Amino acid sequence: KGVSKGKVGSFTVEIRTVNHKYFDLSSRIPNSLNQLEDKIKNYIHLFIKRGKVNLSLSHHKGDKDFGAVKIDYERMKRYYMLLKKIKNKFKLKDDLSLSHVLSFPDVISQEEMECDASLIWPWVEKALKKAVFDCNKMREREGRAIYSDLIKRVDKIFGAIDKIEPMASEIVSSYKKKLDSRIRQVLKGTESIDRPRL
After folding, report:
1. pLDDT in the model for residue 67
2. Number of H-type helices and E-type strands within the chain
3. What is the model's pTM?
4. Which of 24, 63, 100, 137 is the most exposed, fewest CB within 10 Å of its CB?
């Protein structure tokens, strides 16, 4: 995980990876930062050459960066008229208030401000760098743990081979004796034998 804070807000990058034959990046990026998607992919690929990479980038703007607030008066009017109809139809005594109308979706909305990629990139890069560094450290730790586990398993396999090897020459003759004994048992008391089938 990488976090950076600056005058354009704060950026949080989270990276998760799993083993994969090729480099495969899937990312969740805010719409306002879509222009940086290729740059982000190329940056990540510099440090992670293979694997399935899931990247999540979030941007929390500062208080000063809020876009203009819009009021949809037409929508507000329609909601008000609808509430009035319901009130009259069911003979409700409650008064209609501003809070009733404002509780409906899209009456008040906020415009997203356009982001300047050149201003934002240094802060995104800083968060990416930290996230990639942490991710690679974790991958190295996991790699060492897997290596250690594999070495233990290989040692066990070689130990088993050392025990089996001296028995190998006897196995064929032992199996042949058991098979001969079984055939004699099955054929006991049988006079006619289909030799090709046997």
Report:
1. 56
2. 4, 6
3. 0.53
4. 63
